[in-house]
Write a structure and sequence with these properties.
The chain has 474 residues and is α+β, with helices and mostly antiparallel strands. It is built from 13 helices and 20 strands. The chain folds into 2 domains: 295 residues, Aminopeptidase (3-Layer(aba) Sandwich); 121 residues, Alpha-Beta Plaits. The strands form 6 sheets. Strands 1-4-8-5-9-19 form a 6-stranded mixed beta sheet, sandwiched between helices. A 4-stranded antiparallel beta sheet has the order 13-15-11-16. The protein has a 3-stranded antiparallel beta sheet with strand order 6-7-20. Strand 2 and strand 3 form a beta hairpin.
Length: 474
């Protein structure tokens, strides 16, 4: 699709204050019910991991499908799956309403699956029992990403209420069911449902704002490379007292090669990785410490501005290490140790090239002639948006009008690998990565929550964008 509107004025949304007020009034009048709906979704523990009950994913998809059916906007709302290597994926919700009279078509994306709850003892409220306190609603998925689902619902409702049932804007909805499990069948789902998902604009409601008061459009995402490695030094384990001091167990070279991944200042030491420069934003050491829970006596790592380090430079984390636990330890030299390395890569970096650089570094730094084996890998491309299109301009206006503060462009240090699939399957579409989370949402962590005022403003912003898009002339 190649919708090309007349030039967007600087006041395309604010010029029609009556329309904007109607949108806000509608969202506010329905907001209590939207929060209740979010709570009902939070109660469903839909987790797309093999260790969890798949029936909960089905219940989650059914609940979401029913909500979009109740909008009355779509002739048909489907629950569908795609299959890869003979294994079906998790259930996703799909609906589409064609554009009329030359208007643009918008695809609304979110996901209904959630992360596992983690350690229940760390939660201050039950993970799957929504709890409202101090202006936030807590629960697994409250922010990531069931709030995105509810924001889409609120925006569609406001569009319908303000401009009437017979609006011209085309809308598709794709609510994925396996994003937290790696979106294994995402690309296949896009290919199989390409006609219904094709759009001029794709709104991905799975990111964050700068704060509950300051909106943001996410324009950059780091890519990802993960590599499992195994280090071997012996055929079998032996007594540490008898051979220690002469025979290196696998832990010694493993620790040394992992330590080589960072220099003395904590910067990534793998040569050849690219970086991307970001503008400095008002984010201080105190902000970083508060948001990350960094202990007072622990210093930051790396060099350069904070935004550059967490958005535009590579980072490496050892996210797994297979060794005996302290409780199961014995006086033994370990013959083999395995680890999983997660490398985040900057915009403009090819994941395969980054993987080669990481492997070359590990090979060059393994000591004592230890055997280094490479295991499973996972890669995801980085993303850098072109914000010159009409949709980005209009979305930033909508965000500014809704939040009462100008929208800023931000990066995210994490990855959303499926964005690359969207750009490849729908190369002409403008992609807007938005969200309802804020720095204290703690997505994936215990005590996940979303700020209710920020959620309401995000609903208003998306509704304003849909209403303004419906008014555009090609």
């Amino acid at each position: 699709m190649t919708f090309s509107p007349e030039p967007i004025s600087d006041s395309a949304i604010t010029a029609n204050s009556d329309l904007a007020n109607k949108v806000r009034d509608r969202v506010e009048s329905e907001f209590t019910q939207r929060v209740a709906t979010l709570g009902k979704l939070v109660r469903i523990p839909g987790i797309a991991w093999d260790a969890f009950d798949a029936n909960d994913l089905v219940r989650s998809a059914e609940a979401v499908a029913k909500l979009f059916e109740e909008t009355g906007v779509f002739d048909k709302v489907e629950i569908k799956t795609a299959t890869v290597d003979g294994k079906p994926g998790a259930p996703a919700v799909l609906a589409s309403r064609p554009a009329k009279n030359g208007k643009p078509h918008v695809l609304l994306y979110a996901h209904h699956d959630v992360q596992p709850p983690g350690d229940d003892s760390v939660w201050e409220t039950p993970a799957f029992e929504p709890t409202v306190k101090d202006g936030r609603i807590y629960g697994r998925g409250a922010a990531d990403d069931k709030a995105g689902v509810v924001a889409h619902l609120a925006a569609i409702d406001a569009l319908k209420a303000v401009v009437g049932d017979d609006f011209d804007l085309g809308i598709s909805v794709f609510i994925e069911g396996e994003e937290e499990a790696g979106s294994r069948t995402f690309r296949a789902f896009l290919e199989e449902n390409k006609a219904k998902l094709a759009a001029d604009v794709i709104i991905v409601a799975d990111s964050m704002n700068w704060s509950p008061e300051v909106p943001a459009l996410t324009v950059s995402l780091r890519g990802m490379v993960s590599q499992e490695i195994t280090v071997r030094t012996m055929e079998h384990a032996v007594h540490s007292g008898m051979f220690g001091g002469a025979v290196p167990d696998a832990m010694i070279p493993m620790l040394k090669v992992l330590a080589s991944l960072h220099d003395e200042k904590g910067s990534v030491a793998v040569s050849g990785l690219k970086t991307h420069k970001f503008e400095d934003l008002p984010y201080t050491d105190a902000n970083l410490r508060a948001d990350s829970s960094l202990l007072p006596q622990v210093s930051q790592i790396g060099e350069g501005g904070i935004m550059d380090r967490i958005w535009g430079k590579p980072s490496i984390t050892v996210i797994g290490l297979d060794v005996p636990s302290v409780a199961m330890s014995s006086n033994t030299l370990l013959p083999a140790v395995s680890a999983k390395i997660s490398l985040r890569i900057a915009s403009g970096q090819d994941p395969d090239e980054a993987l080669d650089l990481l492997r070359a570094h590990l090979t060059a730094n393994i000591p004592f002639g230890a055997v280094l084996e490479f295991g499973e890998i996972e890669t995801g491309k980085p993303y850098l948006a072109d914000t010159s299109g009409w949709a980005s301009i209009l979305k930033k206006q909508a965000l500014g009008a809704a939040f009462g503060n100008p929208a800023i462009e931000i990066g995210i240090g994490g990855s959303i690998p499926f964005i690359a699939d969207l750009t490849e399957v729908f190369p002409a579409a403008q992609i807007l990565v938005t969200g309802v989370e804020d720095a204290d949402s703690r997505a994936h962590s215990p005590n996940e929550s979303v700020h209710l005022v920020g959620l309401k403003n995000a609903m208003v912003a998306e509704a304003l964008f849909l209403v303004a898009s419906n008014e555009l002339k090609g």
